Amino acid sequence: MASSTLAIQPPAPISGSLAVFSRLRRSSLMIMAGTGLMVLYLLYTFISFDLWHLISRSQPQRAVLLATDAVAHKVHITKNIRGAGRLSIAVEGERTATYETPPGWVTVSDDLTRVDLAQGYRVDIYDTHVIFQIPDIGPVHVRITDAGIKTTLPKGVDPPDWLRATSAKFDARPTLGRRVQVSKARIEVHRYFMGWENFFFPFRSELTAYSPGQLFALAFSDQRIDPDMPNWRLMFTTFWKNPGWQHKQVFVALLETFLMAILGTLTAALVGLPLAVLAAANFTPAQALRFVVRRVFDFLRGIDMLIWSLIFIRAFGLGPLTGALAIAFTDTGSLGKLFSEALEGVNNKQMEGVHATGANRLQFYRFGVIPQIIPVFVSQTLYYLEANVRSATIIGALGAGGIGLMLVEAMNTQRHWENVFYLILLTISLVMVMDTVSAKVRSRLIHGRSGT
Amino acid sequence: MKIADLTKTFGKITAVDAVSFSIDQPQMIGVIGPSGAGKSTLLRMINRLTDATRGSIQINDREILQLSGREKRRWQRDCAMIFQQFNLVPRLNVVTNVLMGRLNGHSTLKSLFSIFGRHMVDEALAALDRLGIADQALQRAETLSGGQQQRVAIARALMQQPKMVLADEPIASLDPLSAEKVMTALREIRDRDNLTVLCNLHTLDTARTYCDRVIGMLQGSIVFDDVPSKLTPSVVRDIYGADQELNESVTSTSIPGPVFIPEPMRIRKPALA
Amino acid sequence: MSLYAIQTEIMAMEKKRRLYSMAGIVLIAAVLISGYGLANDLNSGGFLTGMQQFFDYPSEIVKEAWAAGFSFFLVMGRFVPALVETLNIAGAASIVGGTLAVVLAFLGSANLGVKPPVVVTIVRRIMDIMRAFPELIIALFLIFILGSSPVPAMIAVAIHTAGALGKLFSEVNENADADPVEGLASCGATWLQRMRYGVLPQVLPNYLSYFMLRFEINVRASAILGFVGAGGIGMELRRTIGWGKGAGDETAALFMLLILSIFVIDQLSSFIRRRLVTGRDPE
After folding, report:
1. Alpha-carbon distance B9 to B17, whole Å?
2. Residue C278 clears pLDDT 70, i.e. is over it
3. Do A424 and C137 make contact, defined as CB atoms within 8 angstroms?
4. Of A144, A273, B84, C98, whose CB has the highest number of CB atoms within 10 Å?
5. Residue B36 lies in a domain
6. pTM (two decimals)
């Protein structure tokens, strides 16, 4: 092996060496300046968005709340002090989901209601006196008096941060799944359970009591629960009209969103293609006509989907037709422009070949042009279809209806987060299914048809 | 440098089959053999671009095949490699391409922003000047001719301050005149810098003209290892096979210079080409 | 195979292909007809009544804008800050998302020697999920937690951008020439250095072209997200439209600003992209 390292002579003074060096230096400075500008711009936007203030007043507990509610449900045990002093036990506090007889973990006697919150947590409710048993802390006494709410902690215990006790209200949530609230008007205990409540059948339905196996057997049984219809139909109807989850309305909303996307995209593609021929220089010799069609494309694209949607919502009201037309108008411009660019890029030799065979105008398009344009046409249309499923949810939220609007409304009520979560899941599934199907079709059509 | 039992298999195909040889002093070695004989794989294994299946490469009692991470990259810098297709970055200018030879050891941050010191730039220009292409320093590599690009690649190799140079078919894509310039430059690395140059060649006359030693390979094994003068027609027939009648001059890149008058010879081009 | 057999096979294939095309056309026609029928039924206002009212609203706001006279331009000026906010949402989202996309694209390309190879698969799945998440959902969720502000929209658009651009970028990466990368590997360059010098110079023009296209899309998305509470021009639009009659000149001014800025950005982006394409390899 050679022992010497390579002898490149100590930097000899080469003419222009400084020039080369400063050129390199300049381009590296350009890279740094570019990066720096980007960072500065981000800083500026964050300051103008008031990011720090935003973080400080963000409410991360809302995310926790949403996450808990999305996968769990709670049972309210409510005792109204005023009025009859009636006790009610209901899923999510819904009147329609009230227990007739208390579940096993609640025992009711004349003067005492005992709620077992598991793992050593327990709430005893006497008339206006609540004893909250908490492991490691001991009993917390809460009394409703004329002077206000009086809270007594065991001796030597500092109030923990999950407990708020004022004279107006007592609120303790030692764990995510247990909560006790006492005000002058009512005593309320929440216990959480995993899962979505009454997803398939409403609380009151006799079907709720059955296990999946039993339901399966029941569906094909001849012994009718409801004499008017077979069991499977009863089961479907009960499920379909479940008031808590509104499966029918959700399905219709999904269908509406899907319709907006597919009708809008197909219309845009089918209208865009003939217009694209008029806008392509190698097909339409009339420059004035080309100019007009191109400006039409620019106009349709330039107005933007937001504005089209608002105009169509005004004219057509709520519904899938509105969304479909808004999408169709915007994307006729986009697809038309893309198609006309693709048409201008077609191979002339192939077209001349077809011309030379003495083909008529229709045959000329069929064999000389269509085979070249079809991959672009199909793949771009499918690509826009994917994007438009997402757009359709947003247009829906603007007021055109569909799953987007349903989602916004569900979020605005800020109550049934499990419903919101369900809608989110459905929307994402719809988008992902469309993405997958479109990707499959695209690769099939493009690879399967190459060379034809 | 001692290579022993070096083997590479791709699935069921054995590309390099238990190759052993050693290099005791700086010399220019030509590796010849038909396409598919395993010449490229041998060089790539030495540079560690390809992992060997088995065997050893030892230099001063250091096992090259065991190196990994930083040490492996350091070794790659020490044994510069030149490729048939030059493997430059086409969109970067020539001098930056040469500076790439010193990326090993250059800090990540400086690399990201393309910061190179004055002395490094001067070194790169010196290397380019030595190969006669300093004037093109600021042109994009892709605008240069093939021969010029290969010389840029050699300048990059010099920039690496290597301990040996590997060249994988350096002149196979070049016209005769450029090929001569490139081979002269490689020979100069052997003579002036006193380094070992291990060079895959597809033409016999080039090997005879420029090399101190020739290794002949056939189907992954070494079938000849001696000075070029021992490369008799019968040996050549052994290496290239004797099925087809072919004049050596047809396959050779005829280089003006020390004239070698070829005898008619049979050269078989295997189907693997 | 005899010539005759080949011929019959080709004929059969041609027939099959024609059958597929016909079936496709029939299917599309059926989807369109039944779809529009269904959509018309589900819509609260039918197609015919809608068509009659179509020009009512635009002409109403145009009239009000006309009545406002010169002060219309003052109204437009008043909304420039909202426009800037929308542009900033799009700009910041494009930069944050684009940077993330570059990282994801390099980790998600099969040909760049990412180790272990399972990273490529995971990163690709991550990009798919980021792309699939509708911006609306992320924006609504973040508005709920962070409150009404441009930041939720920015994050939502950035996430989508990272997924969408990441996929396009990695496709560009996978078409890159491997020789320069190998050349750098033979010099002992690290993975990062190989990517920086071996791949990036090759793919950068395509990256920039896709980035410009995405920025334009993001401006539109930012405007629309404003409508659900993310600030900027969309939020102003919701306010003026909510007022109903009387705010027509303001609505018209907002429309005008949005259309103008989209037009300018569209022109700019296609100009830059054209330059990038023509400035490429002379070969």
Report:
1. 8
2. no
3. yes
4. C98
5. yes
6. 0.83
